[in-house]
Amino acid sequence: MSPLSRSATAATHGLWRRLLDWQPQAHSAWQRHGMAIVLTLLAAWLRIELAPAESGGRFITLSLAAALSALYGGFAAGMLSTLLGMVLVNFFLVKPYLSLAFDNPVEAFWLNAWHLLTQLVVVGAIWLMQQQNQRLRDANLLAQTSQQRFLDTFEHAAAGITHVDRSGRLMRVNQTFCQLVGYREDELLQLSFQAITHPDDIAPDIALLERALAGELSAYSFEKRYRHKDGHPVWAQLTVALMRKADGSPDYFISVVQDISKVKATEEALRTSERLLRQAQDIAGLASWQADLTSNRFHTLANSHHILRLPAERFSGEEMLALTHPDDRERMATQWLRGIQGKEPYNHQYRVVIDGVTRWFMVQAEFERDASGRALRALGVTQDITDRKLAELEVQRLNASLEQRIQDRTRELKDAYDELESYSYAVAHDLRSPLRIINGFAQALEEDNPTLSDASRGHVERIKTASRKMGQLIDGLLQLSQYARGEVQRHPVNLSAVATRLLEERAHDDPQRVVDWEVEPGLRVQADPPLLEALLQNLLHNAWKYTAATPQARIRVFAREQDGQRHYCVSDNGAGFDMARADKLFQPFQRLHRPHEFEGLGIGLATARRIVLRHGGSLQAQAAPGEGATFCFTLPAEPEGTAGPSS
After folding, report:
1. Is 63 helix (H, G, I), strand (E, B) or coil?
2. Domain for residue 210, yes or no?
3. How far apart are the C-alpha atoms of 240 and 204, rounded to whole Å?
4. Are 364 and 445 members of one domain?
5. How much is the CA Rg of the chain, to the nearest whole Å?
6. Is the terminal CB of the chain with fewer CB neighbours within 10 Å at N or C?
7. What is the maximal distance between C-alpha atoms in the chain?
């Protein structure tokens, strides 16, 4: 066939297709009826122009117009054209117009009747053909729509959908299933479901498939694991239905695959949490429970009644009250009622008696309430705290006995200390008389014997020097004893004023010394005024003494913050000392310098330390040989509301 012939055939086919697909109802009624009138008038004009109106076949041309009108506008338009044509044939095609064109009325009747019947058949046939075509178009559109909806449902379903033949090979898959297992569609169509199923789940899947093929099952559902393309398992809920042919023989399977990996992960996490909760309950001795307040029934959860050694998993409120220790029943019942009423939180301890053994329980509960606030259910935990309560009671007993023992021991130590202090004072005081006698006889011996040799006079002088030294030691003992006795009377003390006065007195008593001293103003403490003055006197005396050989002596009194405490310091740039020997610094009669270097008994720093300790503070020293020394002490914070004279 030539291209031209093919083109003509295609055009003809297209024309017939358009004619068959023509839909009169697509146009409005006035368009369809108007077209019928135009076609009828046009046919009448052509009939007049082409042949004399008196010739035969008057209805032929107008029959064609009626057929065309029916094709364009449907049955009503075709019949309108038919009736209009009959009017034109009978009254307007032959002159005189508006008069009947037939001489014989009977002939006119039969001709018109036959024409009308013929046109009814033709127009009706055309109308029936159009209706049939419309039904075919509607059916075709419905089929296309249904197919598209099926494709949309299949491809875009939230679950994976597959078609599987009787051997297990995949025939069709949607994109959701492709995403679930990680394969492309063309890859899956080359595989069987066994190839993408977890090895442990293949046998159960095949067993169900064979039962369906044998007629035992028409559909089945179960959980299985697929193997993702990258190797990890994917949990799915699989629902399978067997499709059969018209003769009832098996055709293929439709499978709906729902991804439940997250559900499985959640279930595993829940199981893990439950195991951990049970372990925690076992370790902590905790039991969880719930109570139906309408029926007053209690129910322990997860068999936790074994933890509490309760006789049963379920019990009534009366049975629980019967287990409660008689001494705690009324209190427990009252607290439970107040908890139900919402008047106070329910978190209490009480004793129960189980198998004759008294145990301590700690119970905490929360209440679920309706819209009106009425408690409907209670959820709670109970912990066996018997061991802890017994330990607490034992600690209380030990604390009580320990406190008594401490009081007894403190009293004994105080009595011994007071006795030792009294003894030291008495000894020191009683030694003064023999010393005075020794010193007096030595002086008398020297005065009564002017002819003593130089050696004898030297011996007498040594006796006098030793007696004076011993007298100073006795004075030191008396001083230590004095500062260790009596109560500390705390009052506000102007430490700056006391230090300034003591340094001025030192400068006045030793005018040949040039010492640059500085006292930080505004230093105030809460302390015993006489004891604080003795403390500063000893520290400043040390600073003054050990700067004697320093050309530009300097003494400074100041305060500083260290470790959250306020430290009051006396610093000098004198001889200093080796910190390696600092453990002897505050011991009575211990000295870090030789007697010919600096005079003294070694009692001043011991006295200072005792005064600080009596105030509840601490005394520390920092020094280096030839670089001076710094002594810092702390005192308790000033209590609020104290009042007293300032010194």
Report:
1. helix
2. yes
3. 13
4. no
5. 62
6. N
7. 211
Q: Locate tokens 């453990």: which residue?
A: 583
Give the chain's end-to-end CA distance (angstroms, integer).
Answer: 137
Q: Per the structure, how many domains does the chain have?
A: 5
379-412 residues labelled b (16+ CB within 10 A) or e (exposed) = ebbbbbbbeebeeeeeeeeeeeeeeeeeeeeeee
Q: Is residue 150 part of a domain?
A: no
What is the mean pLDDT for each group of 10 consecutive residues in the chain (647 residues)? 58 54 72 84 77 60 80 82 80 70 75 81 82 80 77 76 90 89 91 91 91 89 92 91 89 90 85 70 71 84 72 81 87 88 87 86 87 86 82 82 78 66 61 69 73 75 68 56 64 91 88 89 89 85 83 91 89 80 61 49 74 86 85 72 41
E-strand ranges in 105-150 read none
The answer as to whether 403 is a domain residue is yes
User: Do 98 and 11 fall into the same domain?
Assistant: yes
**How many H-runs (helices) and E-runs (strands) does the chain carry?**
17, 18
Range of the domain at 126: 3-136
**612, 535 Cβ separation under 8 angstroms:** yes
CB–CB of 381/285 below 8 Å?
A: no
Distance CA 195, CA 205 (A): 12
Mapping DSSP to helix (H, G, I), strand (E, B) and coil, where does residue 45 land?
helix
422 and 515, same domain (yes or no): no
Residues 6+ apart with CB under 8 A from 37: 80, 81, 84
Which one of 333, 362, 384 terminates a domain?
Answer: 384
Residue for token digits 């498939």?
209
Residue 517 near residue 502, CB atoms below 8 Å: no
